[in-house]
Amino acid sequence: MERSERHQRMTLEHYLTAYFKQNQGVRLGETTVISHKVHGNDPGNPGEIHIYSDQDAGRHYLKNSSDNLVLHMDVFHEPAMLNPVHIARRVWQGLETYLTKLFEEESEDLTRDEITNLTKKLTQNIILRTSAGSGNVFELSSLKVKLIPEKQQKPQTHVHLLISMESSHYDSILFIADGVEQAILNQGFEIRRVEKIVHRRKDIEIESAGGIGLGLPGFSSAEAEKYRAHQNRLQMIMNLASAFGSIEDAGRFLDTLSAAGNIFLGTFARKHGDGDLKQTLLDLTNAGMVKKTAFAFVLTEAGKGMRDFIREHQKELEAQVRKSIRRHQIVRHNYRTYRNSELKSRKSHLTDHKKVSPWSGHSDIAIPETVVAASARSFLEGQPRMTVKKKDLRVFGKKSFAPIDTCIAIDCSGSMVGEKIRAVSYLAEHFLLTSKEKVSVVSFQEMEARIVVPFTKNYQKLQEGLRMIQPQGLTPLAKGIVTSIELMKQKRARNPLLVLITDGIPNFPLWTTDAQKDALTAAKLISENKIRLVCIGVIPNEDFMQELASIGQGNLYIVDELDKNSLVDVVTREWEQYKYS
Questions:
Q1: Domains of the chain, first to last
Q2: By the 8 A CB rule, do 68 and 217 touch?
Q3: How far is CA 351 from CA 249, 364, 381, in A?
Q4: What does the pLDDT look like over 28-41, one tens digit per residue?
Q5: Angle, helices 172-186/3-21, rounded to nearest 10 degrees
Q6: In 64-118, where do the E strands start and end?
Q7: How confident is the model over 405-458, as pLDDT tens digits?
Q8: Rg of the chain's alpha carbons, rounded to an integer?
Q9: How many whole angstroms separate alpha carbon 68 and alpha carbon 46?
Q10: Is the whole model's pTM more than 0.85, yes or no?
Q11: In sequence order, what are the residues at sequence separation of 6 or more whose Cβ sits closer than 8 angstroms to the Cβ of residue 182?
């Protein structure tokens, strides 16, 4: 390290120690507060942080028997639901960097493995929590902690850390805070400035889980209660949108819960699964939004208020859903894969109006830039009027890109009802919103296949098509493949990519009486038409899907379950490989 950096590290240790001895906390940078005490803030004034000098963080959160054994760090951000795994891994990287610099400074030659082991010890003594779960940094980084389902999460305004370390390592706090901030920004959220720190004694009892819940501990004012109620309502609306596919469908579902009886609930059950629907109704009942009468579920006054809120703010809520989908953090998984595709994308070339170069014998002359160059030269040469010479000529450059038109072929048989079909719909939405290229959706079920979404870049059209899907019946895989190929040929898809998603084996034929044989015959048409194929299946259909992917010269991914994380991961990595091949 440089001398100034080494001096800064030593100064930080003395600085923090001095404040901690006075039972005070410190703001680090713009967003981080650290002390041995419990922190809190009023939701109505989130930039003002209260540090309770009579509330030791170790005693409060970890039931320690002594004071000052734990450092309490909060890094503040806009209300968000953050993945603690990504934050933990950033913290791990920061500590590894810290230790590497530390031993370089002290001229100690440690191996990479030795630094990794020391990092592991430090991370095991740091507890991290967000809305999605908590655990020590080592366990979170290693995916050894079960996270809270997204449906049960509530937005929080800070990342909460409890750190056990010797004062000689206080300088590592800078690396930890930086890692947390970078993880927040990388997940698409803004960090929030701490405007003011207030030291005070706690004048009311703190609830045991308050410091790391939705709000911060100790505030029961009317404004705080109103803020929390609003945040809870927003979260319930987002959960309904996730369960039913859109804000509009969430509103329709609430409209269905009327005193006249729930005669239309069967429509939701056919798409989302009877068990999922019952769980949603139970969640709404527990939240006081719905009550069960002798004959039906009906909305309470609070439920009617939520329904009216959706009607009044539908556009804003839909924008928030799109924003959430775009921000989806891709979690990389390890899959069993079988790779057969060597198909590469073909690039298109367009004029790049932002790039101008001297003329070299081809067309597309950039007239304004040529005039500017000629005018400047004529002026410098002292000519009375502007003349254009060959050396003044400017031309536009070229740019190349590989447009990829993607068709998602979905198995909509009865086994896909519920979470699986919601995950596939989420994949289609995420892909359209993030790639900004054409997407189409073909569903195959019963005895037929149909184009539910023609090739489009329009998010509204995609949603309207996805709303029509209701899983039921058999799996006519051959028909689904043939319909997808015909769509791509008819629309002259550019660098066509076919994403085939199924959890079963074909059981309805197309040309013969053998459904599997017909599906393999159809797969051969994929390679013949130079379409890149990506198959996503599960363990029960692995052997058949392996044969289908081989004949179709495509890549197969076998996933543990068809959820949105695995689907988005697989399709994103395949799309990137194809686009930049």
A1: 3-212 (no CATH), 222-326 (1.10.10), 350-401 (no CATH), 406-579 (3.40.50.410)
A2: no
A3: 43, 8, 32
A4: 888 899 999 998 87
A5: 90
A6: 71-80
A7: 999 999 998 888 888 888 999 999 998 988 878 999 999 998 899 999 999 999
A8: 29
A9: 26
A10: no
A11: 90
